[in-house]
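ARCHIVE CARD
CATEGORY: sequence design from structure
SOURCE FIELD: tokenized fold
FIELD CONTENT:
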């Protein structure tokens, strides 16, 4: 086994720990680990990430459900539009993007570079949400929900998640908090179930005959991540979630900036 793969599997524990602690951030870690540490091609890495994060989030979601921290009504409410959007994006939009999107005599923009740059932009947007303190107290009130806004947000989240191979938890949790008026602890558990279903459906939509998936890598990475999610869920009872969210936000911001600089100035474009 290559040393880069061993390092990648060790880092996979942190993917699960992050999901277990804050209900999001798994894809923000898994895609860069797969691409930059384990050498997986970016488009393939987004597919791997959907499987890893979807399976890991499912284990975390079941654990939260046992603690009665999942609102299944809102899983359906957000899940239907996000699943629809992520499946269509992975099945039809991503495969039909040309390998070379734009080219001149001195510059070529490749599909893989575009996906990584968009992913980095999503990371930076997510980091700002994480760094910003949550000042508004959320009161669980299902009587005044804006269903059109929730459906529209679900479609947007599904498109973004499908395009960059992310679970979308960093977008789902704010939507659950402010659009669906869900308390934070309930939002984390609910987010895990939504992330799980939409990621696994997205992965199914991504499977094509010409793809050569490394199932050995996928399974080992996923198992390490699942172990991590149980560790994260345990630690969540002992660590201040707000401080953790802020610290992780700064890390994600740094990673997003690094990816943009690497792909635009030092990538093979």
């Amino acid at each position: 086994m290559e040393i880069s793969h061993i390092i990648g599997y060790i880092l996979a524990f942190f993917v699960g720990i992050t999901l277990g602690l804050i209900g999001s951030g798994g894809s923000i870690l898994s895609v860069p680990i797969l691409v930059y540490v384990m050498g997986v091609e970016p488009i393939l890495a987004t597919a791997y990430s959907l499987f890893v994060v979807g399976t890991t989030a499912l284990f975390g979601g079941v654990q939260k459900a046992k603690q009665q921290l999942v609102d299944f009504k809102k899983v359906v409410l957000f899940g239907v539009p996000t699943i629809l959007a992520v499946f269509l994006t992975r099945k039809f939009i991503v495969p039909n993007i040309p390998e070379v999107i734009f080219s001149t005599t001195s510059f070529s923009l490749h599909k893989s570079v575009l996906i990584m740059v968009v992913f980095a932009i999503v990371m930076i947007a997510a980091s700002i949400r994480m760094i910003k303190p949550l000042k508004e107290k959320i009161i669980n009130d299902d009587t005044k929900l804006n269903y059109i806004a929730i459906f529209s947000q679900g479609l947007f989240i599904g498109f973004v998640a499908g395009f960059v191979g992310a679970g979308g938890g960093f977008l789902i949790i704010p939507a659950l908090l402010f659009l669906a008026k869900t308390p934070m602890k309930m939002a984390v558990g609910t987010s895990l179930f939504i992330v799980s279903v939409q990621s696994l459906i997205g992965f199914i939509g991504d499977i094509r005959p010409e793809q050569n998936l490394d199932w050995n890598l996928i399974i080992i990475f996923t198992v390490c991540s699942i172990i991590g999610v149980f560790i994260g869920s345990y630690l969540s009872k002992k660590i201040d979630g707000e401080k953790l969210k802020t610290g992780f936000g700064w890390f994600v911001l740094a990673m997003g900036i690094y990816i943009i600089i690497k792909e635009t100035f030092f990538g093979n474009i």
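CARD ANNOTATION: The two ends are 30 Å apart (CA to CA). The chain has a mean pLDDT of 84.
SHELF: design records, drawer C
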